[in-house]
Amino acid sequence: MTPSASAPPAAETGARLAELLTSAARRFHRGAGARLAPLGLTWAQARVMRLIAAPGSSMRMADIASHLGVVPRSATSMVDALVAGRLVDRQTDPLDRRSVLVSLSDDGRRLLDGLDAARRATAEAMLAPLDAADRAELVRLLEAVVAGGGGGCPAPEARP
Domains of the chain, with CATH numbers? Predict the structure, then answer.
């Protein structure tokens, strides 16, 4: 059998990989979203909470918007909802009174534990068909894809 007869063309493989990655990401997003709803969170709010999750840390609103790839007004709306839910605190930056710092509240930290459990449960449900070796191989491959940042795709922001 010739190589061209045994393997699909590179363009066909690339299209199939794009389709599968998109489908898996959507499925994870839907599954995690369904688990977030009982916690009273949207996907976007959960992203903000994970972003500022480091104990004792806080982040400027402009930096939150930048990390999330949204305009500052959108970040403000997300944070407003989290403040209303008493999940984050806002305070003036002592080094720049024009800036606002956002940090997790104690209630937010407790909810984040539930959020992390929801993400793990979603991942477990999705990956149930894979054995331990397959999961390890998937991690290896996805880490290579994420670290590569090639193909004209912007590199992801560092996230907690």
Answer: 31-141 (1.10.10.10)
